[in-house]
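#data-curation
PF: Archiving a pair of folding outputs for the training set. Convention for this channel: one message per protein, sequence first, structure tokens after, nothing in between. First:
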Amino acid sequence: MGFFDFVKGIGKKNNAQPVEQPNAPAASEPSAQETANKLLGLVKGLDLGITGLSVGYNSTTDLATLKGEAPSQAAREKAILVVGNVDHVARVDDQMTVATAEPESKFYTVQSGDNLSKIAKEVYGDANQYPKIFEANKPMLKDPDEIFPGQVLRIPA
């Protein structure tokens, strides 16, 4: 899919447990490898079925790189979004493949004052279509009322 830009500094805090716990005591600023491990833990925690999943992170450019094969386009997009919506990630380089080709979803950046009904009205012409957006963003969204400005959401066709 390519590169995806996100708003750095306003996403969710990366409090996930790293996939591999380092033996060294934690420093005040995590290393790029520790951050990559935590991002990997976030994606694996969604149980998206991505095989050969790896996540790299460059702390100088705030770029996260995703590799692996996703079982569906939806799984691929969810992995991109869960990593990109972390507070210190500014960009995601998607190098994943998809087992079965499917149409890509549109991405929408939440603005101040938005809610899922307002977004549904804008993109589908019907505010009552908000559950479609909510379902497309599960399990990253736990509640349709808990979205924040700068967050990027999947908007299925």
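PF: Second:
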Amino acid sequence: MAMKIRLSRGGSKKRPFYSIVAADSRMPRDGRFIEKLGTYNPLLPKDSEDRVKMNVERIQHWMDHGAQPSDRVARFLENAGVLDKKERSNPKKGTPGQKAQDRAEEKAEKAKAAAEAANAPAEEAPAEETASEEATEE
């Protein structure tokens, strides 16, 4: 039996409250579980002690028997010092989306065209001055 330590959602609409449970991985998220191991209330401030409550001894017991924590529960356990922090790699996190990239390209093209336009009249300006000087002399 593949065991998971994961979150089970409770609470009302738009007011989530999660229980940390040990459950068979084949059971639904909010379905049958074997043991309740703690709670997580995301509505509380991050520095609140009541935000995450876990029975670390029981979690360790289940992990010794082969239970795998979900990603979110693993982060809770890392913060509690039960698990070692693992390296996470998300190289695409900082890159903008396709539309933002297109807008940046358009902006760069406009800036380049404006720079070329600013440089071009500066070169032609002396020629215009000489033509206007000849007109004033006559």
